[in-house]
Each structure stands twice: as C-alpha cells, then as structure tokens.
Amino acid sequence: MDLRHFKYFLAVAEELNIGRAATRLHISQPPLTRQIRALEEELGVELFVRTAKGVELTQAGEMLKEEAINIGMLVDAAIDRVQRAGEGKLGRLDVAIFGSAIYDIIPKLLQDFRTRLPDVHIVLHTMNKNEQIEALRQRRITVGFNRMTPPWPDIGRELIATERLFAVLPDGHALAAHTVVPFRALADYPFVLFPNVGRPNFSDLVLDLCKQHGFEPAVAQHVGDAVTGSALVARGFGITLIPESATKSLRVEGTTCRPLADAPQAVVDLSCLYRANDQSPLLKAFLGVVREYRAANERDAGENSAH
C-alpha cells in the first residue's frame, strides 16, 4: 500500500462514482477499478458495494475514509514543514554568545530573527572564543558571536558593528565630572581587565591602546566579563573600559560611564562567526538579518554625523 492507493480510494469515496473519480484523477476508469480491487485484496475487506448510481462505502470503507483524510492532512503538513525547512523558515538555530555583546546587540538580532521566523527554535550556548570555533567545526552550533577574531580558512565572519569604548568609573571619581575623558588621564588609575582567555582578546586591545597613548597600566584585577569588571569598579578596585553597547543595558549601581576623548582608535568590533562551507537556508536567513542590522546602523550613524 502506498500514498497513491489512498489518493485513489479517497477520490472514489468522495465522488461515490468510479467514472467521476477517474475524471477527477485524470485517469481512465479501468485502471482505477483495478487499483481499488487491489487495495481491497491487500486489506482483505470490501470497501465499496456497487449501486445503480455508482458505489457506496461499507463500514470498513467509512473507517478507511476517515483515516485516509487524516493521513492526507499529515502528509500535507509534513510537506509544508519540509518545504519551510528548505527555505530556512523552520528548524533549530544553535547560537554561541559571550560577555558584553549579550546586553544589547545580540538580543536585538535574535529578536528580529525570531519575529521574522517564529517557527525556528533558537538555543543559546555561552562559550568563549576558542570554544565557539571548536563548536562550529564540530557542527554543535550554527553561529557564534565574538570580537577580535583572527582569520581562519574554514570559518566565515560577518562584521556586525564597530563600537566605541567607554570608561567605567566609580561614582564620584574625579574623571566622572568630565563629559568626555581624555585617554591619557586613565594612566593615573589601576585597571580592571577582562577577559583573560581567547587570544587576541579585549584585554589585549586595552593594553595596546594604553601603549599607544604612552603608558603601561597598573592592572588591579583580571576578571571574566564586563559585569564582574564593572562591579569591582563600583567597589573602588579601579576603572575599566567597555564597548558602547554594554553601556546601554549594563547598569551597575555605583558606576558612571563616559566616552573617551582623543582616541579614535579606541573601538572594538563585533562579528558573527559561521562555517564557511555552510550552505543551509537557515544560516542564509540569519546572515540576512545581520546584514540588515549593520546597514541600518551605518545609515543611522551617517545621518547623526550629518547633523
């Protein structure tokens, strides 16, 4: 028995006439009659009885009609799901996240993607840079987000944003009275740096910026993320730097954030990472959201600079 048998049977069951069912199926009447007889022989039951006007369903035929309708609906639903999966509209997206970007940019991207494709199940995994690359290569995740990523031949990279850095200062700090903070003024205070894994990392960037401005900072603490770093700043351990996106959502009581003056190079990138050979429609759909977000950000930045 195959789906064709159900299709033929259902046509006869609904038309209750072999001739009309054959016309509906665009086949001649004799092959259709043979198919119905073959189905009855396979099932070992009589499905129809002949009448003057055509045929009528037996009790077994009535039951098979109900099941055939259900099977048809299940097949249609399966076809629809398969087609949507092939178009990147259905499935599972495993996403690796990290540190400071989760406070603003990544949630916006994920929300936009979920709004457009609500039937895609998004699963988040917290991983550092090295863990993300390994997980991509092992196909445990579809995309990852990270900063300062070196080139790998098997890993694709889509730039999302380039963010300014802000100084995080304890409330009441002398520099907090400034609208913007001269970078060189930070040399007089101890630094809280993060993270300390996955080279190159954000700590390396901060140390290099200090070197460019003619000083080597005193490092009070190395911590794992921006939240811990800002919390230590609030308790007087020193100062730290965070990307601009973190200042919009990361509010640590007892701290003040200020943009940096005379340091146009004090910026950090955020990129989306994926397998370079991944041709899946789901990845294509997600990268489309990333590219639209970047284009909108660049457009807004251009308009703001014009004003």
Any descriptors?
307 residues, alpha/beta, 8-stranded mixed β-sheet, two-stranded antiparallel sheet, 12 strands
Folded structure, characterized:
By secondary structure, the protein is α/β, with parallel strands linked by helices. The protein is 45% helix and 22% strand. The chain is built from 10 helices and 12 strands. The strands form 3 sheets. Strands 3, 4, 5, 6, 7, 10, 11 and 12 form an 8-stranded mixed β-sheet that branches. The termini are far apart. The model has no long low-confidence stretch (mean pLDDT 90).
Overall geometry: rod-shaped
% residues in beta strands:
15-25%
- Span from first to last CA? 72 Å
Specify the structural class: alpha/beta
Summary of the model, kept short:
It is built from 10 helices and 12 strands. It has 307 residues and is of the alpha/beta class. Strands 3, 4, 5, 6, 7, 10, 11 and 12 form an 8-stranded mixed β-sheet that branches.
Secondary structure elements and their pairing?
Elements: H1 3-15, H2 18-25, H3 29-43, E1 48-50, E2 55-57, H4 59-86, E3 91-97, H5 105-116, E4 120-126, H6 129-137, E5 143-146, E6 155-170, E7 181-182, E8 191-193, H7 202-212, E9 219-222, H8 226-234, E10 240-243, H9 244-249, E11 255-261, E12 267-275, H10 281-306
Parallel strand pairs: 3-4, 3-5, 7-11, 8-9
Antiparallel strand pairs: 1-2, 5-12, 6-10, 6-11, 6-12
